Amino acid sequence: MKQILPLIALSCAMTAGAQTESTDSIPAQELKEIVIEAPKVIRKADMDVYHPSKSAVEASQNGLQLLNNLMIPTLSVSDALETIQAAGQSVQVRINGRESSITQVKALLPESIKRVEWIDNPGLRYGGANYVLNFIVSNPTTGGSLMAMARPALNQAWGVYFADAKFNTGASQWEVGAQFKLTNKIGTHRDYTETFTTPDDMSITRDETSLGGTMDNSFGNVWASYNYVKPDTTVFIAEIGLSHKFTDKFQYNGLLSLSDGSDDILLTDTHGNKGSTPAISLYWQQNFRNKQMLVMAFNSSFYFGKSYSDYLEQRPDASAAITDIHTDIRDRNQAYAVEADYIKNWDKSRFTAGISYTANRNRSEYLNLDGSIFHQRQDKIYFFAEYFQRLGSKWTATAGIGTQYTDFLFKESDRGNHSWNARPQATITYAPNQSHNFRLNFTSWQSTPSLAETNVVPQQLDGFQWRVGNQNLKTASSYMLTFRYGFNLPRISGSFGIRAFTSPDAITPLLFWEDNRLITTYENSDGLKNLSFFLAPQIDIIPGWLMASGYVQYRMERMRGTGYSLSNNAWSGNASLRLMHWGFVLSGQYMRAQRDLWGEKISWGEDINIIELSYNWKQWQFGAGIIMPFGKYDQGSKSLSRWNRNEQHMRLDMRMPYINISYNLQWGRQKRGAEKLINADANADRSTAGGR
C-alpha cells in the first residue's frame, strides 16, 4: 500500500452523467442515480459531491485554495505546502475526469469550478488509486486569464512562485505556465539511535548526537498545452512539459557514541538526486450516437538525472577516514503509455471497458563501479470491464473485473519475471432516506517491484550495512473491504466507517547477516493485515462564518515476514478550523501523520500545524501565516528488526513565517481545459542511492 501505480486515468461516467450545466462543451448523458441532498454535500452511489458556496469562491484565488476552503472531511489540504492527502494516503487529482497535478489544480479559476467530486472507493477505471478528487469545471466561450502568486518565507530561503496564462480563440485554447519551488539550506537535525545484534548474540549500540545539517529541495516546472473542442463530437489535447529538480539534498552531521567504550566517531551522511523530466501527452475523444464514447490517450516521459550518496566516518583527532562510501548513479530512463476506453450509458445503467499498455525502459550507469551499466525492462498490460446498475429506488450496485499482465527483464543477467493478476471489484449502496446512506465496497490492485527493489548492484550504506535488490520479486496483490455510513444532519455531515486491508505477498525489506555484513534486500513477505476505524465530520459552527472539519483514524495492523511477526496500533488524523467574513479568512490546521508498519519498520510522514490569515481585494489576495507555530516538526521511522533496532526523528527548522501575494486577472469568459475522461500514465522510474 506504500506505492500503488495508477495505470488507468479514467473518469467515472457518473461524473459526466451528473454534469447538466448548459455551458458544457460535451453534452453530458444523465445517469439517474440515488442522491441524498444536503446544503453542502450530495451523496451519490459512488461519490460525495460538494458545490462551492459563494463565500468559499470569493475567499479563493485558485483551485487549491477553493478546495481548502471547502473543508471536505477526510481530506488534508495544505495550500502553504501544496499537498493533498487523505488518511495518510495519496490522492489522485483530476480535472473533468482527466488525471492532473496539484499545479494544474492551482491554475484553475475558482469561479469556473462548478463542483468537486470526492471518490473514496475508486472503480477499476482509476487503476488502483487510493482516493480520487475530481474538479468539474465550466466551459465558457472566449477570453483569457493571468494568474500569479508568490509565497516567500521571512526567515528561511523557502518559497513558492507560480504563474499561468490562458488564451481562447474559437474552439481552441492555449495555455503556458511555470512554477518554482525554493528550499535552500533549511536547518535539519537528526535524532538517531541504533542497536545491532549479530547471529551470535553480540550487540552494540550507537547513539547519534546531532551536529546540525541542511536540506535543499528546489525544483521547477514549465508547461504548455493546446486544446481543440468541437461540441458534441471531438476533443483533442496536446501537452508538453518539463520538470527539473535543481537539487534534492539532505546532509546530516553527527557524533556517534558507542556502547563498547570505543572513541566517539564523527559522521557525515549526505544523499540526494537531481535531474530533468520532459514529457508529452496526446488525447482524443470521440462521441457517437446512442450515448457511446471512445477515448484514447498517449503519454511519454523521460528522466535524465543522477542519484548520489556519501557516507563518511572518522575519529575527531584523525585525518584518515574509518569508513568512506561514495555512490553515484546516472539514469537515462523512459516510459510510454497508451490507453483506450469505451463507455456506453443507458437510463439506469452504464458499461465501461478499457485496455492500457505501459512500458518502462531503464538504463543506470554506476560511476563508482567503473562505469558499469545495467538495463531493466518492464511491460504492463491491463484490461478491465465494469457495469453499474440502479436497483429500485434505494439500491445501486457496481461490479467489474480487471486483469493485469506484468513482465520485467534484467538485460545483463537475462533474468526476469512475469505474472497474470486479477482485480475483482464490487460496490453496493443503500440509501433509506434523505439523510443517511450505507456503502459496502470491495476493491483490489497490484503493486509491481520498483527499480530500487530489483537493483542487484550492492550498495554500501555505512561501515557494515549494505543494500542489494532481488530480481526474483513477484507482483504483489492487495485487497480492501470498506463499510461506510454517511450522514447529513443540521449543521453537521460526515461519515463513519470500518476498513479491512490485506496484502498477502507484500513486497517488503528483509534484513540478514552475511560475512559480517548486514544486508537489506527485499522479499514477497507473508503479508500485511490491518483493520481501521475512522470518523470524518464537517461542522457549521456559525453558518457562513465559522466551520470545522476533521478526520480521525485508529488502525490495528500485523505484519509477517521471514523470521518475524510484528503488530502496531496507532491513531492519526487532521483537523481544520476556518473563519471567513468581510473578505478575511483565518484558518488553522493540525496534521498527525499515519504510523505505517511495513516490513520490520514503522514510519511516519510530517506531523505539522499551520496558521494563516488572508484578505481578498478585487483581483488581489494578501496573506500571512506561519508553519509550525506550535511543537516540533517530526518525520521519522522505527526499526523493529532483531538485527538492527533503531529509531530516527528528522527535525527541520520549520517555524517559518511567510507572506502570500496572489493576482488573478480575467478578461472575457474563461474556457476550461478540455475535458479528459482518461489519462494514460507514463512515469519514468529512477534509481535510489544508498543512505542510512
Features:
692 residues; 6-stranded mixed β-sheet; 26-stranded antiparallel β-sheet; mainly beta; 5 helices; disordered N terminus
How would you describe the overall organization of this protein?
- With 692 residues, this protein is mainly β.
- It has a 26-stranded antiparallel beta sheet that branches. The protein has a six-stranded mixed beta sheet with strand order 1-2-8-9-6-7. Strands 24-25-29-28 form a four-stranded mixed beta sheet, with no helix packed on it.
- A hairpin with a 2-residue loop joins strand 26 (476-489) and strand 27 (492-503).
- The two termini are 23 Å apart.
SSE blueprint:
Elements: H1 13-17, E1 41-43, E2 48-50, H2 54-58, H3 63-70, E3 75-78, E4 83-86, E5 89-90, E6 92-95, E7 98-99, H4 102-106, E8 113-119, E9 132-137, E10 143-152, E11 157-169, E12 172-184, E13 186-197, E14 203-230, E15 234-258, E16 265-288, E17 292-314, E18 323-345, E19 349-366, E20 372-391, E21 395-410, E22 415-433, E23 436-447, H5 451-454, E24 459-460, E25 465-467, E26 476-489, E27 492-503, E28 507-514, E29 517-524, E30 527-542, E31 546-561, E32 564-581, E33 584-592, E34 595-598, E35 601-617, E36 620-627, E37 634-640, E38 644-652, E39 656-668
Parallel strand pairs: 6-9, 25-29
Antiparallel strand pairs: 1-2, 2-8, 3-4, 4-5, 6-7, 8-9, 10-11, 10-39, 11-12, 12-14, 13-14, 13-38, 14-15, 15-16, 16-17, 17-18, 18-19, 19-20, 20-21, 21-22, 22-23, 23-26, 24-25, 26-27, 27-30, 28-29, 30-31, 31-32, 32-33, 33-35, 34-35, 35-36, 35-37, 36-39, 37-38
Structure described in brief:
The protein has 692 residues and is mainly β. 4% of the residues lie in helices and 66% in strands.
